[in-house]
Amino acid sequence: MAAQLRNLRASTGNPTYRDMADRVYFSAGTLSAAARGDHFPTRAVVMAFAEACGADPEEWERRWYQTQKPPAPASPPSRWPPPAAPPWPPSS
């Protein structure tokens, strides 16, 4: 999420975090921390960050929820169950 926020900010000309904070109800430090990625930002911070950059907050809310989804389970190997291992040491 942090990389996406940094890209959003860059795409709008890299406004200062202070200028962004003047447009929304979060501090410059909070907005900067969201872009640093030390912790996953709250939905409200992501939406405010988007609003401060002139982006659609609803789109960024969707992005936030998408990143909250658990990863899909790994698919099983192509042959399931795997073949039995050959005896060791090999018989002569």
From TrEMBL:
| Superkingdom of this protein's organism | Bacteria
| Coiled-coil spans in chain | none
Q: What is this protein called?
A: Helix-turn-helix domain-containing protein
Q: Where is this region: Disordered?
A: 60-92
Where are stretches of biased composition, namely Pro residues? 70-92
Q: Which InterPro entries match?
A: Cro/C1-type_HTH (IPR001387), Lambda_DNA-bd_dom_sf (IPR010982)
What Pfam families does UniProt report for this protein, alphabetically?
HTH_31 (PF13560)
